[in-house]
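Quality-control log, excerpt.
Job 1 of 2 completed; input and output follow.
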Amino acid sequence: MKRNSIDIFEHETLHVASSNEDLFSDDGKRVKITSDEFISLQRFHYRISSNFYSLSHKKIILKHYVGLLRVGKLNINILPKIDKSETDTRKWHNILIQMIMFTKSFRYKRSTISLLKVTDSSILDLYIYEFYKEIEEVLRQGLRRSYSFKDGNISGVKGKILFTRDVIVNSSDKSKTFCRYQVYKPDNILNYILHLALKVSLNMTSNMSLIETGKNLLSVFPDVGNHVVNSKVFNKITFNRNNSYYKSAISLAKLIIHDTGLDLSSGSENVVSFLFDMNQLFEEFMYKICKKEFKEDEYQVHRSGKRFWEKKLIKPDIVIENAKCGYTVIFDTKWKIPKDLRPSDADLKQIFVYNHYYSSPVSYLLYPSTDDGKAIEDLILPGDFQNYALNGEELKNSCYLGFMPISSEGKLDLKGTQERIREMYLIAMHRTGKLG
């Protein structure tokens, strides 16, 4: 039994144990945190980020973020949840990992899964493993080098003689000259970021295979000096054809260095966060599904915004345009189940505006579902807005509720999800033809 791991679903509550015995359930699973762990999470909440959970008396109330919270040696795995009665943490642990891998377009999908075996901290290990693979690719193509000036006392003359310093240093030794000269070294901000992320990553995993790989990579990395690394530095980095092969490695390094909540000024932090907004993850997942499914030339899948007031934009999650027939269908994702299967007024108004601005007679509010065995007709609830007139023309438009099963038999169902999104699209197109 893993005594340093808690599996819990989003929006659930994590309680502080009243005693050591109270930390565990009757079947020996870790279910609560200690007072010291609560204090660390409390400090993290106030110092680093208040987005992930809220605080109450002796309890942590989780929000819509999923992934890993590490408090000292304790791993808190926060998992997505569709059904309130859901209890299968192992299933959702696997689905979350698969969803992250698909959404983030990891290069090493198969080898990652075989290496990590879905361990307690594998969401974090997944990224570290991918990061190491990207570093190996950078090293294979060669570290970028650049010219910089170096001051040194050398035999002979190179570059520019610093006469004042030379007189002081070499007053009794005329065989050397103090010069300022150019050197061609890998000492630049890109290499330093990778080197720093390598060192940080070794403190973020307990996977011995990863630790060994990280140490090996660190041993072959050259000396790259010291640089300041913060969010401004990452924002200033630009890529071109000469350094484009660094891009994936730098993105993962930023996640490891900058987005985990590590306090680099002190060298360590008791709490490490590696969490994803589940609303954004579901949106990105369905967007990638649509991009993968609608590959034909007549389709354009995008999420471009349109200006609707001053500099404010409206921006649907997914827009599918068909150049052949001129129709547009919009999908707006919602990681929730609407109460009594009735959408909120705000969501309906949002779709109404999208339909108007994008000339889309039929759009969807797209929710997750666990009903993978249902026919497509049973996964759609049609609904029409009241007809209205604009410039003398009567306009008709609809908002359908779509319920998308994303898993089957405990696994992420990519093929099934692609097939269902096309079926939902075709049903909307059929309805559009009738409205027209």
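Job 2 of 2 completed; input and output follow.
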Amino acid sequence: MSACQHLGRIGVIANPCAGAGPDALQGILARLLPALRERDVVLVADTFEAAAADACGLDCRKVRGPVGDACGLTRELLEAGVDTVIGVGGDGTLGDIGSVLSSAGSVVRLLGVGVGSSNVGPLVGTTAVELDGFLASSWADVPVHALEVRFDGVKVGLAFHDATVANTFFGTRCGRRVDLDAAAGLRGEDRTADPISACGQATWIAKNGRRLLAGAELEGGQIVASPLNDTDACRGKAVSGLLCWGPYVGCLGVVAAASALMIRTRLGRNDLEAAEPLRIFHLGLAPGDVVEMGGFRLGSALVVDGTPRCAASPAAIVSLSTVEGAVVSIRRAASPRGEMEREENG
């Protein structure tokens, strides 16, 4: 794998609890780790990925440290002096790794292998299905923007894909994507739930200290905040992405407030017709802007990159601001033909 020689010292983090499950993850690592032979690889001892390396006979250095979540493992690998972290997990796992890399002011790059329930975030360099082709291709470094998320003034982390307040989040059970109860998940319980709006008469949104939306404008709907990455795909299209002008006015992020629930595993034509006419309010996030929102219903949670972080309440306040170039993601390099086609399409 010629591209690997440019990765320097490599650390690997794998989440066996990601959507694909431990058996599928074992098979993915059996394809990935042999491609790292003769490379300088560092793993945290007594982890799932360390056991997989032993199983495939990969000669690597193992460092001792607390075996915990992706954040803790990333810190251990940074201490070991890695140049690149290969993260194998879902959007939440990759977001945790990216948050630590950004907070440390690190120049360490992230190669994300998406094996979660959604795998739609900008940190996903490849999916498990495309892994073999990706390993044989040329790569490029791509800076990725993020949103810093705070809950009652305390930093929760970075959102690379989205942040929302909701009563459910996506999970995979028995190979099927389902809506899981977010508040129950925070208590360590695993159960499904029907999505309902976290927005009521008391819900509000303010930007730079000025309240812009409240009450009936938000009741029964959903608020989703997202950094704006890969915006070229939206240029020249009236209906695309978050249906906003953010890519054209220098915004790094956007807050979208829809009049109906849009994040759910089953969103069919009947659901969309029932929500018509759908209203969407947009607030752009430029560098230095701060958006705050609060007044959410009990039973909902702050969900960042698909992972519940904090239990919401009517008194709690969520704050959002942008982080430009928060982390460098390794992606498949665009082919010259692809670049030409993009220029021709304007």
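Post-run check on job 2. The helical segments are 22-32, 48-55, 70-79, 91-103, 131-135, 182-186, 269-275, 336-345.
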